[in-house]
Specification:
Shape: globular
Structural class: alpha+beta
Distance between the termini: 35 Å
Helix content: 40-55%
Number of strands: 7
Order of helices and strands: HHEHEHEEEHEEHHHHH
Strand order of the largest sheet: 1-2-5-4-3
Largest sheet: 5 strands, mixed
Strand content: 5-15%
Number of helices: 10
Length: 257
C-alpha cells in the first residue's frame, strides 16, 4: 500500500547508512524506479496544469509531498500519491471551473465538483495522476485573510533544479516554517503521521542554518496550533535528537492552546 511504500523507501537508505542489509528487501531498486517514474508523471501533469492556471493568472503553491520528494530526498526515495495544490481563496471557484474545463480531468466526486464552500482538498484525476485543490492550508485550525496573505508573502519559488521536468514558470512552495506547521497539523491518520514525522525531521535538518524558530512559534499561535506542533517537536527532539531549541518548546508548552 502507498503508506508502507513511503515508509519503506524512507527507512531503507537510513538502514544502509548504518551498514545494515536486509536480504528480503532486495527489491529496493525496483521500488525506487517505480517511485521515480510515478513522481515524474505526477510532475508532468502538475506542470501542464500549472501552466494553464498561470495563463488565467491564478497563482498556485505546492504543498507537502511533491516538492519535498524533490528537495529533501534522493531520486525515487519518497513516493508522492498526489499533488496538493493551494490557490488563493478568492480564486478557488475560478480554479475549480478551470479544472472542469481542462481535457482529461474529472472530479473524484462528480456530484459536487463545484462546491466553493468545501476548500480542503477537492480531488481531481487525470489518468493515474491526482491533484488535490486547496484554498485553506490549515482548514481545521484558525484561518483568516491576513494569515493567508502572510503565507503567500513568505512563499518561495521551488526553482528549476528541484524539479525533474522543466517548469514553464515559477512554482511556489511554502516557507519551511509554514511547511512544518502544515505537516504537523495535517497528519491525523497513523500511517500518514509516521512519514509526516520523517518529512518534518528532514525539513528542519535541511534548513537548520536558516530556520526561523521565532516565526515558527508566531505562526503556530496565530493558527491556534501550538499544542499540536509542540507534541510533534517534542517527540522528534526526545526520540531522534532533532535540534529544537528548548526555549521554543517551553514557550509552546506554556502557551499551548
Amino acid at each position: 500500500d502507498p503508506a508502507s511504500h513511503r515508509l519503506l523507501m524512507i527507512a531503507l537508505p537510513t538502514l544502509r547508512a548504518y551498514g545494515m542489509e536486509v536480504p528480503d528487501l532486495a527489491r529496493r531498486q525496483g521500488l525506487e524506479r517505480r517511485t521515480f517514474c510515478s513522481n515524474t508523471m505526477l510532475w508532468n501533469t502538475n506542470r501542464d496544469q500549472s501552466a494553464v492556471f498561470q495563463e488565467r493568472r491564478i497563482s498556485i503553491m505546492l504543498l507537502s509531498g511533491l516538492p519535498l520528494s524533490q528537495t529533501l530526498y534522493p531520486p525515487g526515495a519518497r513516493y508522492s500519491i498526489d499533488a496538493d495544490v493551494l490557490v488563493k481563496h478568492s480564486a478557488y471557484g475560478a480554479a475549480l471551473d478551470l479544472l472542469a474545463q481542462t481535457d482529461g480531468f474529472a472530479p473524484r466526486n462528480p456530484d459536487a465538483p463545484h462546491d466553493p464552500s468545501y476548500t480542503n482538498g477537492q480531488e481531481w484525476r487525470k489518468g493515474t495522476a491526482r491533484i488535490d485543490l486547496h484554498a485553506r492550508p490549515c482548514h481545521e485550525f484558525a484561518r483568516a485573510d491576513h494569515l493567508e496573505t502572510a503565507l503567500w508573502a513568505r512563499a518561495r519559488p521551488i526553482g528549476q533544479a528541484a524539479a525533474p521536468v522543466p517548469l514553464p514558470h515559477t512554482v511556489l512552495v511554502p516557507a519551511p516554517e509554514d511547511m512544518v506547521l502544515f505537516l504537523a497539523v495535517g497528519q491525523t491518520r497513523v500511517d500518514r503521521m509516521l512519514h509526516g514525522l520523517v518529512d518534518i525531521f528532514r525539513l528542519i535538518t535541511h534548513h537548520k542554518d536558516d530556520f526561523d524558530w521565532a516565526l515558527q512559534e508566531k505562526i503556530a499561535r496565530e493558527r491556534a496550533a501550538s499544542l499540536r506542533l509542540c507534541c510533534v517537536l517534542h517527540y522528534l527532539s526526545s526520540r531522534f535528537d532533532l535540534p529544537v531549541p528548548n526555549v521554543g518548546l517551553e514557550r509552546h508548552v506554556a502557551g499551548g492552546d
